[in-house]
Each structure stands twice: as structure tokens, then as C-alpha cells.
Amino acid sequence: MEKIGIFYGSTGGSTKSVAERVAKAFGNRAELHDIKDSTPEMINGYKYLIFGTSAWGIGDMQDDWEYFIYELDQINFEGKKVALFGLGDQAEYADSFVDGLGTLYCRLPDKDVVVGQWPLDGYKFAFSLAEKDGSFVGLVIDEENQAGQTDARVKKWVKMLEAEFV
Ligand SMILES: Cc1cc2nc3c(=O)[nH]c(=O)nc-3n(C[C@H](O)[C@H](O)[C@H](O)COP(=O)(O)O)c2cc1C
Fold it and tell me: I need a surface site. Which of 14, 52, 124, 157 has the fewest CB within 10 A?
């Protein structure tokens, strides 16, 4: 079975922890990489990819993704499938909820490769760059306000992705 490359950027460790839980749910198919130690070649080596970022400031991705984002142009996304997840805080940042996820999506050179869209139900926010056509562009996790739901959300999302990463 094709391996899955998970590339995450995490400042305080929450996104890393979610990335680890996603990897665990996939069993030994998934390989974890911190984006700060990654290269375009590493990403190019996978057909199935998962990118994860937290949100910082209005529209900002996690810092290491901010630095890496220019390298995305060196990746050939043809034939790949990419799922995204983002962390944010809907109570404190209701006007820019998971904007890092939305910005990461916007910066992808090819949007057709994106799978794993996630429903808006169960979140309360005013605006999010990650919202598109009535869904989030990827899994949304809020460890500040809804940590108790994270494991169930991860499991459900991984089940959805298993139908895509075949
Ligand atoms: C200074 C600061 C700015 C933040 N800005 C946003 C934001 O604009 N939108 C949002 O949804 N969350 C925002 N957050 C919440 C973080 O994205 C959230 O705490 C996340 O879990 C951090 O993950 P990490 O530790 O893996 O980087 C912010 C947090 C801090 C401390």
C-alpha cells in the first residue's frame, strides 16, 4: 500500500499532537515530518499527502509553513492527492478562525488535488478563510475549546481519507 506523508508545522505542539494522532489512525502507512526539517524532494516522494498547520495572526500559517510555502512551486502535484488539516481557536479568534488552513489551501498551486473537505457543523465562528462552498477545505481542530472532540474528529476524517488514499 502507498505510504502517506504527513507534513505539519507546530509552534506549541498542538498541531504536532494532532498529526501524531492522524498518523496513528492510519497505522504504519503514515510517515510524520515536521515541515521545518523537510524539503520539496521529500514531499515529491509521496503520492498521498497530508499538510497540517495552526493559525497565527490574521491569515497567517504557522511560521515554519510561512517559510516553506515558496518551495511548493517545486512540487509536481500531478497524480497526487492532498488532504489538509488546521488548528485554531474559535472563541478567541472568531473572525479569523483556522485562517492558516485557508491560506495554505490558497497557496497550493493545484486545488483539484485536495480531498478531505470537512463540514462546518459543530463550530461557532464569524469568519474563516478555510470556508469554501459550504465546507472547510480540510479537517478543523480546536484544542482550546473542543479538545474532547479531537479524537473522534480525527478518526472520522481518517475513515473518509481511507476511501481516497487507495
Ligand atoms: C498570538 C496567537 C495568534 C493566534 N491567531 C489565531 C487566529 O488568527 N485564528 C485561529 O483560529 N487561531 C489562532 N490562534 C490559536 C492557535 O492557532 C492554536 O492555539 C493552535 O492550537 C496552536 O497550535 P500549535 O501549538 O501547534 O502551533 C492564535 C494563537 C496565538 C497565541
Answer: 124
Atom of ligand 1 nearest to the CA of 58: 8
Question: Is 103 touching ligand 1 by the criterion CB < 6 Å?
Answer: no
C-alpha 11 – ligand 1 centre gap (Å)? 9
Instruction: State the 10-residue block means of pLDDT for the chain, 166 residues long.
Output: 96 98 95 98 98 93 97 95 98 97 96 98 98 98 98 98 97
- Please give the number of the atom of ligand 1 that sits closest to the Cα of 99: 9
DSSP track, 74-129: GS--TT-EEEEEEE--TTTTTTSTTHHHHHHHHH-S-STTEE--EE-TT---S--T
Residues sharing a CB contact under 8 Å with residue 51, sequence separation 6 or more, in sequence order: 7, 8, 35, 65, 82, 83, 84, 85, 104
- Of all protein residues, the one whose alpha carbon is nearest to atom 31 of ligand 1 is 56
